[in-house]
Write a structure and sequence with these properties.
The chain is α/β, with parallel strands linked by helices and about 525 residues long. The chain is built from 15 helices and 29 strands. Strands 13, 14, 15, 16, 17, 18 and 29 form a 7-stranded mixed sheet that branches. The chain has a 5-stranded parallel sheet with strand order 20-27-21-22-23, with helices on one face. Strands 1-8-3-6 form a 4-stranded antiparallel sheet. α12 runs parallel beside α13. The protein is globular, with a radius of gyration of 25 Å.
Amino acid sequence: MARLFEFGVPQTISAGQLIFRLGDEKYDLVVIDQGWLEIIKEATPGYPEEVIVAFGPGEFIGELSILTGQSVNLPARAATDGLIYRIPPDRFRLLMETETALSGILLTAFRARREILMESASHTIEVIGSASSAECMALRSYLEHMALPYRWLDDSAPDGSLLMRLASLTVSDLPAVLLPGHSLRHATPGSLAKDLGLSHERIKDEEVDLVVIGGGPAGLAAAVYGSSEGLRTILFDAVGLGGQAAASSRIENYLGFPDGVSGAELTRLAAVQALKFGSRLYSPSRVVGLQPLDDRVQISLSDGMNILARAAIIATGAHYRSLPIARWKDFEGAGIYYAATELEVRSCAGRSVAVVGGANSAGQAALFLASKSSAVNIILRRDDIGARMSSYLVRRLLADPRIAVHTSTEVTALEGKDVLEAIRIRNSATGAESLLGCSGLFCFIGAAPATDWLNAACAVDKNGFIYTDVQIRSENLGPSWRKLQRAPLPFETSIPRVFAAGDVRHGSIKRVAASVGEGASAVSSVHQVIGVPV
């Protein structure tokens, strides 16, 4: 406590005084010396004001939003007279960098408090929308990726209908998000992020050392190593943190996790680690271009904002392909999914589902779905399930009575009205066709690199994966390289000061551990290019 006081500014408080107000863009870490403080949820339609928790002498107020920069949505109020110490953001950053033991205690508490909020009934974010709405699923997926506490209500359910009436919402306003004091109609992940203070709009004419494009394992590793080594680091992700790894229900061959770890948990831990060292993570923030400018790189965002950086790392990864089947788009988010996490599985637990694909991600998804009492059909074009899948997964799949494996098979048609109800499959070896009941089709096929936004100056292979260092042909090295009088460094692209790591890079090993290693290694090359951060 004495060490914490050294970082803070003392303030005498009176009962009833607001310490943080709803909507404040930033808040201090508050350490209580005397008196009591309350965290409150302000009154909303149909619900009175609620005291969430009270803190007393020897305790502190704060959770993960103090790291993410999220606006205050749970105000703090003095319950009694007292004395507190306020640690402002710059002093808090110094505390986290210099006080190892204290930073460990604070991080543990922040994470635990966020988990309590995630499980609490006192949610400050309420999403109203249909279970069959792709737009509503996008909102829920964003909130899950960002580990934001929320509650979803189906507009057709009694509690959802009641809340709509109390908030003066109609079906035409959906999906909607209810927040303390106001609501968002036709809500999107972008509008919600802006409202919560999690968008990149707070960046004002700022130059940084490193911009990381993509929030999967490679990007998060680059953010961790960049910021921990003194680089002013910003990460942009177009959808939500975690990338393809966050879509994995369980990763069992990642070093250090003998019992396995979900992709979502692994990426959440990585994000907290990056935030701890001072990285700023923004999502959804879509990068649409980059331009080399002598000793800087200009990063362009979809809203027209430009950021100058001394170096950039592209870690946009790859995304699963869809199938060329009629009505595919109609059922995306309403029965067709590209991830198998708790969020997606809840909608079809206990019913028949299908998994398309023959790699590890498909095998893990099938096992996870089967564990939720679903009858699972694995559908793959190859005639051997072990061709691209780890042997330990193959053994488990073949031994599970809830899982049926259909080799040499493809999906030919989708059926259903508003949501997916069945699929037609065809065996290419026998020509036999059949109809399978299917409330959820989980697609894990192919890998298309997320490089369609790149300009032509960046050398890529015929599939769009980025060439780096020794892979780059001499004819792709323009005049700027002759001026530099050096060859591209490890992980550097054909654009000087721009690097690539992870699944987006040509020849990379498509594994989480490999992506993490590449993201960290790319930072080493960044240091060689830019030297000591200014």
